[in-house]
Amino acid sequence: MIAAFYFGGSAQAQQTVSDSVREKKIEEVVVIGYGTAKKRDLAGSIVKVDGSVVADKPASNPVNSLQGKVAGVSVVNSGQPGSQADVRIRGTVTINQTQPQYVVDGVFVNNIDFVNPNDIESMEILKDPSSLAIFGSRGANGAIIITTKRGKAGRTNVNFYSSIGVKSLDNKPEITNGDQFRILYNEDLANRGFPAYNRFDLFNANTNWMDLIEKKNAIVTNHGIAVSNGNDKNRVSFSFGYQQEQGSIKYEDYSRMTLKFNDDLKITDKIRAGVGFTGSFSKLPQLHGFGNALNATPVVDPVNLTHVMSPDGKMDYYGLYNLLPQELGAAQISNPLALLEMEKNTLKSKEFQFNPNVYFEFDFLKDFTFKSSFYGQFRQSNGRSYSPIGLMFVPETQTVTPFRNRTLSDISQWENRTQSFQQDHLLTYRKKFGQHDLTAMAGFTSIYDDYYGLSAYGRSSLSNPLGQIPNNPRFWYISSDFVDKASTTVSSGQTKATQTAYLGRVLYNFANKYILNASIREDSSSRLAPNNRSQMFWSLGAAWDITREAFMQDVKNLDLFKLKASIGTLGNQFVPGNYLFYPTYQEGGTGVFNNNLYPAFVKAFEENENLKWEEIKSYEIALESMWFNRRLSFDAAYYDKQTSDLLTYVQGTTNFFTNAGSIESNGFEFSAGWKDNISDNFGYFINANLTTTKTKVLSVYEDGYTIYSGPAIFRAGLPVGSFYGYVVDGIYQTNADIIMSPSSGIGTVAPGDFKYRDMNGDGQITADDRTVIGNPTPDFTYGFTLGADYKRISFSADFYGVYGNEVFRSWGNGNGFAPYNYRVERMDRWTGEGTSNWEPRSYSASGYNREPSTYMIEDGSFFRVRNVQVGYNFDKDLISNISLQALKLYLNVQNLKTWDHVNGFTPEAGGSALQFGVNGSGYPNPRIVTFGINATF
Q1: Which residues pair with 289 in a beta bridge?
Q2: Which residues form the TonB-dependent receptor plug domain (predicted)?
Q3: What CATH code is assigned to 265-526+534-706?
Q4: Spatial distance between the Cα atoms of 738 and 328, rounded to a whole number of angstroms
């Protein structure tokens, strides 16, 4: 039963507005695979995100700004400059790759880091089989279609934007200071039967390495200009953008220039053509991490501040960076500040991308349109790196040693080129007759990919009269006279792949209330063996706009109620290699010929001529609704995706790829929104979404077969990426406690060690007692946005949350090879009966307490104030005197605050299909306060 609500005004007026709103809603045009369509004609789940959502955010990659915006889309960002987000649409459905298919103005690309967010007109996120089957073997992980801005008919528009932002860190890992480290380390020695460390009189510092390498008040700037002009015959647009970003660690400098051009020409009423390109040029940063800073012992000063002369009296060691104490990590950990400062600016890396496109389109026989499009993608990166030499001071011996044990400087040089050529030829038939509306499309497409890589290495030689390679970029070439030619090595790689496809789609609706969509695609690829090269994918979708029915006409406040469902098959072609059916060889030993030793080669894996694409059988049941004159919207969907014939790499006596195993992902998606205008001067809106996701491994290569990936396991019956280890039931408090507990078969135990649970009840702790200890996939994620406009002031705030997942902490758990610094929680360690039942004693001689266990599991739930913006739009009458059409000033704060339960920079972590959600302390997602201006002339 559907209830009718009445909020004032005549029923006739309300119905008139409702009809108008409904017409506007269903006439909305969205971009789909190989074309566009009216939203009313679609049975699938396509979410359209306006370009303004990502345009004024301090992110180089536009997909970063989608976090929390779209139901069913998980976005895990990294704060490193120029980084790519981990994006998963409707869970993890393959074991080789998780990223969706990106399409930029028709071009299939693997990354959209070359797209300027300010150039985006819209982003369409495709999630269900009805909208994705047209992509065939590229549709498994969903798709994100980017449409950039084009010229429009009318006057010339010039848009200028500029912003500057400052970074700061919110949450930092909590690690022990010098005094705390000395306590824990001496306890460790005592528990191992050794005397206390006798050099803490020398190493009495309290150094916070994170603070030393952090770039304080790092700057982000973004500037650009866009020009567009057009008339009935020709529409042109051009844009240029420049962005600079400093990382959260010193000397991580990233910059990018972007360029875009489009020209659409209407030759006659029936013939159209166009040309365009997008391009970027980036200087890539020399990326670092906080790992050394977290692990380095805090008791040593970063720099030697005592005057010590060399034995020959010619050199004062004052000012040299200190080596970490010999017994406290020096062999494994470099001085973090020395590593940063001595190797600063020793990387020169650039990347260039250019994507041209051209199309020709004509109408014929009244209802037919034929369009041919040609696309190119050229991506080239090159770089040079230098490994310098230097001296480190050894405080214990008052001597010096080579930096990183390096006595010769060396260089590396590389170049990688990727070329892709794509062509689409599409025939479209559109016909309206009576109450019938039909759009049919048939087409052919092909993509050719070509990759080439070359790398070289060389070092200096003391026998060379020129000596060491200087720390000067002009000499960082393999051809340099400073390079010892006998030391040079060169390697190269090249791959080629071709894919062709025939495709077709039908969009049909009757009376704008009964909708049918059907798609089919046959993919052929050189990546597969000749006898299995082609595979068919299909989908079928249907929808019913109930509000169009006669019996709904008396419902005054319901504008749209649309039920829809779709089913189909998708595929995954993102596999570990291009030649899985060819014999590939690698070095696997040596052989002796004529008393000379030569490398021997063995097969990397046994070829399989029966490989085929993974196949995903997917279905969705959903509804769309709008209420109260479009003020309230509510959408809901249930989806299920089952992947079979997983492309599995089997390791054993022989290694090979095969199609085996299956996984499932399913869940619910809910989206709701409310917007209203209280008066001419005040309006507000609220948007919210919630997603549930469950994954499960249905089968594997064979019964009992298991794939291990770090702390994660892939085994039938478990969620994808499950963490695997022991369950901690507390701490052994006494020897009697140990005697009364199951015996340990994995190491000798003593009071203060973990008490692992005997899962199989056999009376002893063995590897068989390991079990699932965590699931990295959240029970649900959610996001909501609040916004308001009062006169010329605008306000919006984005919030994002995750609940019900676990994070595996891979850092700060102790190390048996060298003393590392401790998490501050270790101060609550066990020191005697009853002192702790969770933190074990300080004892590093055994790996028992470092076995993967629930001790390493952290609650991954968090809540974040993702973005807050306040803007002011100047009065048009005021700014028209300076030839401005619009002028906006705004203040934006990104990542304002995160509340979480992990000890680390961030509670979220991406990863691979099989291992994700691992907290390695991470790289911070900084808070960024940005001030910007946007002006239109």
Answers
A1: none
A2: 38-143
A3: 2.40.170
A4: 32
Closest of 427, 426, 425 to residue 368, by C-alpha: 427
Are residues 812 and 822 in contact, defined by beta-carbon separation less than 8 angstroms? yes
- Pair 556, 11: CB distance under 8 Å: yes
Nearest to 419 by CA among 452, 448, 378, 358: 378
Distances in Å between the Cα of 636 and the Cα atoms of 624, 667, 669, 694 are: 7, 11, 6, 17
Give the pLDDT score at 8. 35
DSSP string, 866-894: EEEEEEEEPPHHHHGGGT-SEEEEEEEEE
Phi, then psi, of 405 in degrees rounded to 5: 55, 30
Residue type, position 465, single letter: P
pLDDT in tens, 452-478: 999 999 999 989 889 999 999 999 999
DSSP state of 768: G
Residues belonging to the chain = 937
User: What 8-state DSSP symbol labels residue 752?
Assistant: T
Q: How far is Cα 52 from Cα 414, in angstroms, rounded to an integer?
A: 38
- Identify which of 74, 246, 99, 253 has the alpha carbon closest to the alpha carbon of residue 909: 74
Report domain extents, the chain: 265-526+534-706
CA atoms within 13 A on the CB side of 360: 3
For residue 21, what pLDDT band results from cuts at 50, 70 and 90? very low
pLDDT at residue 630, as a whole number: 92
d(CA 183, CA 235): 72
Q: Which two three-digit tokens encode residue 153? A: 């008919």
Say if residues 665 and 697 touch (Cβ distance below 8 Å).
no
As beta bridge partners, residue 807 has: 858
Using the predicted structure, report yes or no on whether residue 641 has a pLDDT greater than 60. yes
pTM for the complete prediction? 0.93
